[in-house]
Amino acid sequence: MLNINFTRKIPNDYVEFGENQIRQLLNAVSGVEFVMLCSSDGFEIALANKKNITNSGKIAAVSSSILAMVTAFISEINLIGCQSITLDAENGKAILTSIPNDKYPLVMVVLTSKDILLGRMLYEIKETVDALVKY
C-alpha cells in the first residue's frame, strides 16, 4: 500500500534516470515503438518513442486505472502481486508493468509492433523495472 507521507514530486534525477532507462529499452528490442513511465496515479513522467502518439496523457491515466483494476481482480482470485499485463491486438501489443519502487511507485507502458520477439522484450522490461526499483 502507498505511504501517504511521500512527496508526490518525483525528483529530477530519478526522472532523468527513468528517461535513460526507457530510451535504452526502446532501442534494445526491434519493434518497441513507445515507452512511457507514469505515476501510479496516472500522470506522465517520462516518454520515449519512435511512433508519435498524441494522447500520452490519456494513456497514462487509463494505464494506471487498468493496472489497479487488474490488481483488484488478481486479489479476488487469490493470486499475489500483479506485475504486468500483456494485451495482444491484431496490429501490436501493449504491456503495462508496475514498478514497485518504495518511494515512487510507477507504471510503465510499452507499445510494440505485431511481430516482436516477446521473450526478448519481456527480459528487457524486467531489466528496466529492476533498475528503476533499485534506484
- Provide the succession of SSEs: HEEHEEEH
Task: Kindly state the number of beta strands.
Answer: 5
What fraction strand?
Answer: 25-35%
Secondary structure tally, helices: 3
- Give the CA-CA distance, first to last residue: 19 Å
Write down the overall geometry: globular
Strand order of the largest sheet: 2-1-5-4-3
**Global mean pLDDT:** 90
Structural class: alpha+beta
The major beta sheet can be summarized as: 5 strands, antiparallel
Q: Estimate the helix proportion, in percent.
A: 40-55%
The gyration radius over C-alpha positions equals 14 Å
Unreliable residue stretches: 1-6
Write a structural description.
The chain has about 140 residues and is α+β, with helices and mostly antiparallel strands. A five-stranded antiparallel beta sheet has the order 2-1-5-4-3, with helices on both faces. About 40% of the residues lie in helices and about 25% in strands. It contains three helices and five strands; from the N terminus they run αββαβββα. Helix 1 (about 10-30) packs antiparallel against helix 3.
